[in-house]
User: Fold these one by one.
Assistant:
Number 1:
Amino acid sequence: MADKPSRALIVYGYGLAGSVKPLHYNIHDLAAIGCCGFLALEDLVPSDNEDEGIVRELAQLLDAYEASQDGVGEHHKTVPTFSKRFMGMKAALVTNNSDIKLFGQRLGFFGIELNNLVHAGAPMNFMAFELLKLLGFEDGKTSDESQFDLVFVHIGSNGKTANQEVSAAKDTEFMNKLVGEILQTSSQYSAIRSRLHLSLVMSYGAIAEEDQGLLLSSLHDERNSNLSLLFPRQSYALIGGKFRSNVRKRCPLLVVQWQEAVTRKDNTEMLTFDDFRKNSGSLVIPADRFLYEIAFKLWKAPKYGA
C-alpha cells in the first residue's frame, strides 16, 4: 500500500481485445510489468442498438447497470453520483461517444471530448501530457491538489463489418501509442510513477450467440478435472454468499493494473486471452467490483476482497 493516495487513469477499449496484435508492443509491455486478470460480465440479452450495448457494458464496469436500464440518453431515476459513492471522488470521462458522455455525466463524471485532446498534427505525447495534467502530474512533478482523482478514457466501438474492423484496428493502434507515451513519461519521473495507478481494460464488444470461444471454464486446470467439484467457487461466481446465475461464460474483459511498488507483477508477457489464462495473477473478479479496487488505491473506498 502506498503512503499517499494514488490517482487513477483507466483506458478502456470497447471491442478492441480481438484487434491486439504482436506488433502492439506498448500494450504488451504494460501487460508484462502489470498485474493481469479477467473481469466477468453478466450474460445479458444482446442489444440491437450498438450504442446501448456499449453503455450497458460500461455500466457494469462502473457498477451502475440499473441506471442504464432507463435507456440511452434518458433520465428517469435518481442515481447516486461517484462523489457520494466514493468519498468525494472527482472523476472525468473522456470519450467521443455522446451516449456514453451523457451516461457518465449522470453518474457524476465530468465529460470531456476525446477529440479536444487530440489536435490535428499534434504528437501523441501531447494527449498523454493532457491526461496526466488532469490528474495533477505536470513537468515531472505531482501537485498536492489535482483537478480529478480518476480519469476514465473510452476508445473504440464494435467491429463486425469490414469497415468497423478497420476502425477497430486504427483505434487499437491509437491506444497502443497512448499507452506507450504514458509508460515513457512515467519511466522518466519517479514522482509520477509512484502515484499513477494505470489500468488498461480491453473488451471483445458485442458477442455473437454462436461464438463459444474464450471460455471462463478454460481457466481451470484440465489435468485436475476430476477434482473440479472440490475447488471453491471464485468470487466472480458468488454474490451475497449465493451463486450468480447470470455470469457470461465467454469473452470476459481483459484487465491490466500497474503502479510502481503497489501492484504485483505476474508471469504474463502479452495481452492475450491465452497468456492471461495461463499466467495472470488476478484470475477473475466480477466487472462490477473493478471500480472498488481502484477506489481503494485512491483512498476512496474500503478494501475489496482479500
Number 2:
Amino acid sequence: MPLLLVLLLLALLAPSAAFAPPALGLGALLFKPRVGIVKSGEWTAGGGGGSGDNGEALAEAGRFFVDAFWTGKVGGASSLSSSQSQSLERQQIAEFKKRYYQRGGASSTGKLPGKYAGRSSDKRAELLVCVDGRGECVGCAGVEVERIKKMDGYDGSLSAPLMSNLAISRKYRRKGLAEDLVRAAEAVARKEWGYDECYLYVEKRNVPAVKLYQKLGYRTIWEDDSATTLLPTEDGRVANGKTTIVCMKRRLGGGLFGNLFGAS
C-alpha cells in the first residue's frame, strides 16, 4: 500500500481529545491548516489592525478562550450554561485586558496577578493570536514578565517570562498549532525581550497538557498541592476547587543538552 495512503488512513482513525499534544509527524505536515500567528494589536478581526490599541482584540480573544478552555475543563462541567458563559466571559475579558492591554505598543500596568507573582519592573506582556484564513481566532497564548517564586524553602523570586492562557479551538486540535503558539511565545521572550528561559504553570491533572510541555522541553521545577482554581460545575455554578499547580521551565536557545542539564 502506498505510504501516502497509509498516512491518510492513520489520520482518519486517530482518536480525538479535549486537549492533546500536537501530531508532530508526517501527518501533521500533510494536514496542517493554513493559519497565521499575530500579536493581538495586529489582529484586524479583533479591531487591532496594527493601531497598537488591542482592547477589542482582547475582548474577542476572551470570548474565544471561554469556549476553547473553560468548556469541558478538566475537573469541571462538560458544557457551560448561559449564566456560566456570561460570568466567565466577563472575568476572562477583564483578565486579558489586565494582563495584555496595550495602547501605542506599551503595556498598561506592571501589576501582575496570581498567587505566585509579585510586581516586576519589566512590564512587558503579549497575547499571541492564531487566526485562520477568515481572520477568526482559532488559538491563543500569552507571555508576560512576572516575579516567579522559587518555592525552594527560601523566600525568593526571580523575574522571568511566564507563558499562560494557551488554548486551541476544538476543530483545530492535534494539528501542531499548540506547539506553534508555544514556540511563538518563546520567540517573543528570547528574541524581543532578551530572556534565556521561560516558565509556565499548569494543573497536574491536565495530563495531556503536561505531556505536551514535557515533549517541548519543559521540566518540572516545583508543585503546589494547596492551590485553587475556578471550576464550572454541573449545577450551573462557577466555584473554587482544589488543584495541584506544577511550575515548569525551559531554557531557550540551549538545544537538547541545555534543557537536559539546565532545568534547575
Number 3:
Amino acid sequence: MAPVPKLVLSYFQIGGRAEPVRLACVIGKVAFTNQVIDFKNWAMVKSQYPLGRVPLLEIEPQQEEGGSSKVAIGQSQAILRFVGTLGNLYPTNDPIKAAQIDSFIDATLDAVAGIELSFLGPVRSLLSTEEWSEDEKLAMRKRLVTDQARGLPYYLLYFEQALVNNSIQNASNYWLVGDSITIADLCLHRITSWIGSGILSGIPADLVDQYPALKKHYTAIEALPQVLAFRKKYPTPYTTFDYVPDEDMAKREL
C-alpha cells in the first residue's frame, strides 16, 4: 500500500467551506494539519492562493525513496472528494454510488447559492454596480426562507425525503446514500449547522426544526465518537493544529 501523504488544509478560523473536509478527515481517520489564515491578513496573502480562494489543500506524498513533490489543490469539493477517498467516505470502485453522492453534493451547492449570494452582494457577483442596502439583503433572505418552490424549504424538503427514503431501504440509518456515512452527508451537515448557528440574519435558526429527519441527521454526525472527541479538543474559533486520529478511536466502527 502506498504511503499516506502529508496533508495541510488552509482556511480561516471558522468552519465554513473547510468544515466538511475537516470532518471527513476526523471520521475517516486521516491525519492533517489545520493551517489557520488570519482574516486580518487575508488581503495581503490572497494572491498566493489559486483564484484567490480557500480552502487549499497541500499534499506532500510520502515517497519510500527519493524526494517528494508537493501538490496544491483548490476548490472545496475537489478537496473533499480526495480526502473522502482516503477515508473510505467516497467510493473508488462503485461509480453508481459515487454518482449518487455527487448528485447530493451538487444539490447542497444549489441549496446555499442564495445565501452565499446574499453574502457576496450584487457588486462582487457582477449583478450590479451598486450594493444592496441591509433592508434589501434581508428582504432577499426572507424570500429564501418563505419561497416553497425555489427557496430553502424546497431544498430542505428534498433532503428530508431523501433521508426518509434511504432509511426505508437501509433500516435505521441516518445517511443519504447506502448504509454508512459519506461526504454527501458532511455537505448536508454544513447546511444544517450553518442555518442552526443563528449567524444568518433574516434566516431563523430553528428553520430546520420542522424537518425531523434532517435534525436526526445533524445529531447523528455530531454524536459520532470521533466528532465528539474532535469538538472537545479543537473548539472554534480554530487555531493551527496537527490532527492525528486517536488510536483508541480508530478501533471503533461507525
Number 4:
Amino acid sequence: HSKPSSQTSYQTNPMTKPAAIGRHHSILIFLLLTMAAATATATPSIEDINTTKHKPKKVHCKEKGYTECRKKSLLCPASCPRTCTVDCKSCTAVCGSTVKQPIDSPATPTGAAKVVKCKNTKYPGCYYKEYTCPASCPRTCDVDCVTCTPVCTCDKPGAVCQDPRFIGGDGRRFYFHGKKDRDFCLVTDPNLHINGHFIGKRNQTMSRDFTWVQGIGILFDNHQIYVGAKKTAIWDDNVDRVELTVDGKPIYLPESEGSSWSSDSITITRNHNTNDVIIEVEGNFRIKAVVVPITHDDSMVHKYGITNDDCFAHLDLSFKF
C-alpha cells in the first residue's frame, strides 16, 4: 500500500440522516439527549457558585509520593463545584474522577503542554492570565475564570472525547465503542440533528474496534455544517488540520486566535491559532471542536497499535445546548 498523504481528507457523509436508527444508535441518542437536558438543569451557573448550595468543595490529593500536593487544599472548578478530584501529578482540581497512576507511569502525550488564558472580562483578576494545562490533559484544557485554574475540557459536562467517552450534564460518564468507518446519530431533535463519523483501528486481541469521532455533520433549519479532522500521518501542532463547510461550501479561517466567520445566525471562531474552533448558532447550540492526534505514548499505554502512516487525528468535542 502507498503511504497516505497527510493532506488527504476523509471521504465521509455524516450529513445523511438515517432512515432508521438501530439499537446502538438509539442508545447514543438517549445519552446525548440526557446530556442536553441535564446541561440546562443540572450544571450550576456562575452566579450559583457563590451561593451556599453550590459552594465549591475542598479536595485533597490522597496518593502517596506527592508530599507537597498532599499538604494543599484545592477548590473544585465552577463547572463541577461538588464533584471533582485532585490530579496529584499536576496538583490541580479536575472535574470527574481521575485514574490513579504510579509516579513512574508513562509520559503524557508528546509535546509541550498548551498555555491557556481566561478570556472573560467579567473576571479582571483572572482575565488574560496564562496557565499551563494539567498533566492529565496537556493539549485540551480551558481556564475556569471563577477559580482561576486550568480545567480539562474532556472532564466537563457535555464532552465527547477519546475513544469515545460521553459526559452528561449531570457529570455521569458513558462509553460507546461503535464501529470504524460508520456514521452514528448523536443528537436528534425537531430542529437539530447531529451525526458523527467514527474512524478506528482493530486490535487483533479484541473483538471490537478502537474508535474515535473523526467528524460531525449538523443539520438545523435549512443549514448544514460539517467539521472534521483531516487525515494526518505526522502530527504538528502548528499545522491546521480542521476541515469546515457550511451548506456545502468550504470555510477558511485565518490561522490566528480570534479570527471568525459568520453568516445569518452562524458564527465560527478560532479558539487558538490552529486545530481549535468554536461553532455557535444563537439560541440553539455551541460546539467546541479540537483536533487531536493519537500519540505514540497514547498508543503504547492503550495498545492502539498506531503506525507512522496515520496518527488517527480526531475531534475532542464539547456540546452546550
